[in-house]
Amino acid sequence: MLPLFRLLSHVPLRALHAAGAILGWCVFLASSTYRRRLIDHAAQAGYRFAQVRPAVAHIGRMVAELPCLWLGAAPAVAWDNVACIDAAYAQGQGVVLLTPHLGCFEIVAQALALRYHAQHGPLTVLFRPARKAWIAPLVAASRQRPGLAAVPTTLAGVRHMIRALRQGQAVGLLPDQVPPEGLGLWAPFFGRPAYTMTLAARLAQQTGAQVRLVWGERLPAGRGYLLHARELQAPLPTTLPEAVEQLNGELERLIRECPQQYLWSYGRYKPPREQSPEPPPTEVSGA
C-alpha cells in the first residue's frame, strides 16, 4: 500500500479530487445505510439534501487527497483571518486549536505547524495508531511532519498537551469526534444530544489557553486550500457542561459557513465506546 500511495502522491491534486468525487458518489449510491445517515444528519441541522449535495463528492475527495497530503509536496495554502491566531499566541498562555470534520482537516494541522513552529514551537496533536496493519505505516508517516508533535491518546499524551500549553505552544483537536465512554458529556449538537468530548474545554479551563476554531476549505479545481480562523463568540463558561455546550454551538456556527464540505456521514450521534483501563485523561490535575 505504501508504494501505491507514493505513486499517487505525484498525481496532481486536481486529478485526485476528480477521482475522489466519483468515489464519493459510488459509495453514496452503493450503501443505503451510509446514504441515510448522511441525509438524516444534514436534515437534523435543517438542510435538505439538495443543499448539501456537494458533500457527497467532498467526502470522496477527503480520501483521494490523502496520498498528496501524507507523502506529496505541500499543496498551496492561503489564510483567512490568520491574525486571530497570531493574537492568541501573543497572549503567551498557549492555544487550543479546534478543527471539526469540515473541509480538509488534514491540511489544517500541517499548515499550522509549518507556519508557527519556528517561532512558537510544535503543534501537539493526539495520535491513535491505525488498527489495520496495512495502513499503519502510512498513518505513522503522515504524522512525521516538521513542527508536528504527535502524542498518544493516553493520560501521558494529555499531560504532554498540558505541558505544551503552559510553554505557550498550541495543541490541536477534532472536537466533534465521539470520545470513549467517561471522557465526554451529552450536549446538544444541531438540536440533538451528542456525546461530546470534554478535553478541549478542560485544557482551556485548566491552563488559561486561548481557543480558536480553524477549518480548511477545498478550493475548486485542485487549486489548494483556504484556511479559515475564527475566535469564539464569547469566553468559555467556568462550568464544564456549559463550556462543552458552548463549544458545540461554536462548531455549528463554523459548519454553517460551508455545510457542503462537512462530513455529514460521520456517526456523530453514536453511543461512546468503552474506554481503556487507563484512568481518564481528563482527570489530570497537573503536569
Architecture overview:
44% of the residues lie in helices and 17% in strands. With 287 residues, the protein is α/β, with parallel strands linked by helices. Strand 8 (210-218) and strand 9 (225-231) form a beta hairpin. Helix 2 crosses helix 5. Residues 279-287 have low confidence and may be disordered.
Topology:
Layout lengths: L1 H7 L4 H18 L1 H13 L4 H4 L1 H11 L1 H6 L5 E4 L2 H8 L4 E4 L6 H16 L2 E5 L8 H7 L5 E5 L2 H12 L3 E4 L10 E6 L2 E6 L1 H9 L2 E9 L6 E7 L8 H16 L32
Parallel strand pairs: 1-9, 2-5, 2-8, 3-4, 3-5
Antiparallel strand pairs: 6-7, 8-9
Helix pairs in contact: 2-5
What are the defining features of this structure?
alpha/beta; 287 residues; seven-stranded mixed beta sheet; 44% helix; disordered C terminus; two-stranded antiparallel ribbon
Gist of the model:
The protein has 287 residues and is an alpha/beta fold. Helices cover 44% and strands 17% of the residues. It has helices at residues 2-8, 13-30, 32-44, 49-52, 54-64, 66-71, 83-90, 105-120, 136-142, 155-166, 199-207, 240-255; strands spanning 77-80, 95-98, 123-127, 148-152, 170-173, 184-189, 192-197, 210-218, 225-231.
Specify the number of helices: 12
Give the strand line-up of the largest sheet: 1-9-8-2-5-3-4
The gross shape turns out to be globular
% residues in beta strands: 15-25%
Helix content: 40-55%
User: How confident is the prediction overall: mean pLDDT?
Assistant: 92
Order of helices and strands: HHHHHHEHEHEHEHEEEHEEH
